[in-house]
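Hi Y.,

Following your request, here is the sequence exactly as I used it, all 202 residues.
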Amino acid sequence: MAVERTDDNETGAVAPEAVTPEAGAPEAPDPKVVAAIAAAEAAGPQHGETVRTDSWIWSVRLVKTRSAGATACRGGHVQVNGERVKPAHSLRVGDEVRVRQEGRERVVVVKRLIRKRVGAPVAVQCYVDNSPPPPPREAFAPAGIRDRGAGRPTKRDRRELERLRGLAEGNRRGRFAGPGGPGGPGGASGPSGSRESGEPRS
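Below is the corresponding structure, written out as tokens. Let me know if you'd prefer a different format.
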């Protein structure tokens, strides 16, 4: 006669495979990201040391190169706590950094000080991003798109295209301007460039 096992039901114990994580429980961080953050913090400033602004914005991938970060600081495109700063300005945790580039402003709050450039998943762990959303792509109307089969643009079409692109008429040099063009010092119609019809070419 078979005996039923009821001790599991009596004690209320649940098998390990029946345990399911709660829906609201936070996911465990990626061990690779944790290791990269630890390595970046180890390479960061020690007690009493600081991090330069141009170095930090390059490390967290706000600019592509460190020299671009220094150029942005010198040009007044980088502000820390509302003030324009030089490339060597020292950053602290909690500072608000504004970087203006390519028609967009990034607003971040320093969370970790690092000196070594890290990957994008690690970089987002080093600041709090308070940037406004980027403008939609439809806001920029494409200028200079012609209908298929319209043929080559006329001079009037070309002037309209240049006006749409914001090119000034005065900055554009003429097609034949310069030393070799007509009317220039070395042109074919100039005094030094005129030839008799019967003269052989030299």
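The CA atoms of residues 34 and 124 lie 12 Å apart.

Thanks again,
Q.
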